[in-house]
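Weekly modeling sync, notes
Attendees: S.R. (lead), two postdocs, one rotation student

Agenda item 3: backlog of single-chain predictions. S.R. asked that every request posted to the team notebook include the full sequence so nobody has to chase files. The rotation student volunteered to paste the first one in as an example of the format we agreed on. Action items at the bottom.

Example entry:
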Amino acid sequence: MEDIFNWCREGETLQVRIWLDDPKNDINQGDDHGFSPLHWAAFAGRTSIVDMLLNRGARINATNMGDDTALHLAVSHGHSECVSLLLRNKADVNALNEHGNTALHYACFWGYQQVAEELIAYGAQANVANVNGETPLDKCHRQMLSRIVELASASNQDLSKKVSYRDANYMKRQLEQRTRDAKLSRNPEISLKDLNLHTKTAITTSGETWRGTWNDNIEINAKFINYGTECTPRIVRDFLEEYPKMRIFSHPNVLPVIGCVNEPPSLVVVNQYLPLGSLYNLLHERKQFVIDSQQVIKFALDIARGMAFLHSLDPLVSRLYLNSFHILIDDDLTARINMADAKFSFQERNKIYQPAWMAPEALQKKESEINVRAANMWSFAVLLWELATRQVPFAGLSAIEIGMKVALEDLRVNVTPQIPHHLGRLLRICMNEEPSKRPSFDQIVPILTKMAHAN
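Predicted structure, as returned to the notebook:
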């Protein structure tokens, strides 16, 4: 993992690209000081690598151990092109580090006038105080002070009042995003004794899920895989062969399996615990949680991006069924597809669970006969309906009734006038009765991106 940090710092573009193509590599992982690949690329002003990392899903506002973002580092070293790129990609222009300094503090201190002017154009506040009570104006070089005051005043900033560190820091703490612990992707095999499991959270046909901690400090979910009556050597072999395909760290909208416990009769997959739980839980069991139209599109876009990435893999991850139970919500309201919910080959074959989200052909045909990509798109359409209405699809019917009626009696979700027109139109396109006429996720990501920008 250390190589990627060096490659980003030294500008080894080809090596970075090759590294990014391996899904086991975590683009948002930090080094011992919490510097992610994006931090190091911004630190060194490697604009092309910064652009590549952002396009691959690097978290632009992730912080290192000192709470510096990539923008802090690019500004501190006067890398104006890199700063411009980060700002265009919605870097938090007023993020505070552990000293209470914003990027503008550093631009003013080091005398980078062009950078400071661009920061203000993107909303940087010149009156935010750091831990020592100093604003960017207090740190400003004398020759550029009048210009910064002029621009801040033109932006309707009240420079007569300081925003105290306490007030600004409170907001920062709500939005803080540390880089991920290196342990998450470096330990594919985990010992059961290192898991402290305290609460059973789910019992399904595929296994029991427990909440707990790993090595006493990383909150995790541990799923004990249900394999039937006997854990045969063949099952163990298949488990060890298949679980690494679920360790996908390279996309922000995919929640990877961190590792596994292979201690028969215990076969366990481990992933991060996300306190907001599943999308199903958020939509239907936490009614007090406000989800406006902008957040609906954001969730839909997150899911589409994650599925577009998964559909780019060859071979596809088998038996991963898309529904709101299998989408988990991170604490920054990012939707992530839970790889721990993918089924293993030795688990119940051709069994149907959560049929409300499944395409009609998936309910009638064998797995080998189904166009999986097209079937996933139908499931996504049901998710769109669920997001737009905040209703459970086909509530009141049993799973068997739903499966039979969707497969044989044309039971479909109802696109009512209450669903926004643009969303309803997309829903109908994704739910085309002819699988070959449904779009791909690559095709709908730009549509959803445009919707997100319009909101």
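Discussion: group reviewed the output briefly. Confidence is low (pLDDT under 50) at residues 170-176.
Action items: rotation student to repeat for the remaining queue; S.R. to check formatting next week.
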